[in-house]
Amino acid sequence: MKRSITRLLMAPSVILLLVWMIVPLSMTIYFSTIRYNLLYPGQNNFVGLMNFEFFMTDPGFLPAIFNTLTLLLSVLIITVVLGVALSALIDKPFFGRSIVRVLLISPFFIMPTVNALIWKNMMMNPVYGVFAWISQTLGFEPIDWLSDFPLGSVIMMVSWQWLPFAILVFVTALQSQDTEQKEAAAMDGATSWDIFRYLTIPHLARPIAVVVMIETIFLLAIFAEIFVSTGGGPGYDSTNLAYLIYNQALLQYDVGVASAGGLFAVILANIVAFFLIRAVGKNLTV
Amino acid sequence: MTLNQQRKFKTLIIGFFSWLVACLLFFPIFWMFITSFKTELQAISIPPTLFFEPTLDNFSIVQERSDYLKHAMNSVVTSFGATIIALIIGVPAAYSMAFSPTKRTKDILLWMLSTKMLPAVGVLVPIYILFRDNGLLDSRIGLVIIFTLMNLPIIIWMLFSYFKDLPKEILEAARMDGATPWDEMMKVVLPLSIGGISSTGLLSIVLCWNEAFWSLNLTASEAAPLTAMIASYSSPEGLFWAKLSAASTLACAPIVIFGWFCQKQLVQGLTFGAVK
């Protein structure tokens, strides 16, 4: 193909994404340096770094960063470990495997708002929830999940949603694994564990990199689950960066501070992306 | 036990555990579905009722109160619309990167993915203001624009890895036979990659359908898709579980059933070039 045609084919995507990146980002940078509160229109003077100072000294700032990273790492570990285990479990044929697979991947199709509502009410409610009923039946005091373990509850909901995605990708990857190699290893006396450890895990290195990469993109921006279930509370216990900024912008109408917060989110995402690309980038076919 | 018996026993154990885990993971969805046919009293009874006389009242109440069909239509239009537009823009880009890569192809791809790393909250305010000033707030067109741009990087990446794995020999053969680049794309590559393109589209539709951040913040009533409709049930109706379940079931059923039918297709395409 000629160079010019190549450029022409790529142009729409590149231009659109460039605009999508640069226009809002430069507006955010601009807003972050002026006083901009929707409750006090017309007083948009330049304030330098004051918005940043204001955002950083917000009592929710450090908890939000901590919660964002905890949420990211916990969900990544849970989904990758369980995802590998479960997809290895259903790799060989057994009775009703296709139904099992459908059941396993279903949570991925449930929207985050519904996910949070089901878990918050029907599962985790301390009086009428299924969990409460189970612990009562077993003779324990029911746990008030959302107040006592707010971040843990959010981690549970988000993992439930993303585990199926990991399973989907790993199941696909396992299908392409060389069965002859496994059989040969078994002939030579390798146990199932050996085969899993020395053949399957290395085979999954790339898919794991892919899952980590894609999930990170979505997990850094978790919003709806928190919005619907805990509302960031109690206190700041389940507030992540996305939710803190939302709070600042739409509930306190302070666009300036929210924009400063937005830039923090961008910087944090870039730091994570930097480590991520160094850690898993070499495993990606780019 | 003979070796054969041993193997059968192992399969049985594996099957048992797989079913157990699958049922556990599926339970919340099952429970939501069941609860939507209960009365409000049955919904919060302890111990939970499993056998009861199903009622359809909740569904009619939901339709009456929040016009389910309108929101469902919004979801369908925005997710399919955005996916089709993103594919039209993304296929040529992925195609040219996969078949005539330059030194910078890798950088461009990583840059595209990095735009996806930009957290939505970071640009929420400017987008909100741009939308407000251009009359795009609470409009389907506005959501389609956002969804298209939001999914474009992932779509390009998936397509790129799919195109890259196509056997090069076929292309060379076509070129030898005098195929022009246009023929090559329309008659050779696209037919071969229907699988990859459709699974990319499927994933994109699912992601759009379930997108909540932008739809919660940029729509109010007219263009609100199902995700936003459900959020309106979160606080005041929090304790009316039967109605809540009915609304949730209605919101998820189309995409879950769609997903079930397409899951084979989805499984085949979700390699992201990760499988060699």
UniProtKB/TrEMBL annotation, chain A:
The keyword Cell membrane applies. It is a multi-pass membrane protein. Belongs to the binding-protein-dependent transport system permease family. The keyword Transport applies. The chain crosses the membrane at residues 9-31, 64-90, 102-119, 154-174, 207-230, 250-277. Its main location: membrane. It is found in: Cell membrane. Keywords: Cell membrane, Membrane, Transmembrane, Transmembrane helix, Transport. InterPro entries: MetI-like, MetI-like_sf. This is Sugar ABC transporter permease. Residues 65-276 form the ABC transmembrane type-1 domain.
UniProtKB/TrEMBL annotation, chain B:
Residues 72-262 form the ABC transmembrane type-1 domain. The keyword Translocase does not apply. CDD domains: TM_PBP2. It holds the Pfam family BPD_transp_1. Keywords: Cell membrane, Membrane, Transmembrane, Transmembrane helix, Transport. It is a multi-pass membrane protein. It is found in: Cell membrane. The chain crosses the membrane at residues 12-34, 76-96, 108-129, 141-163, 184-207, 239-262. Belongs to the binding-protein-dependent transport system permease family. MalFG subfamily. This is Carbohydrate ABC transporter permease. It comes from Marinomonas phaeophyticola.
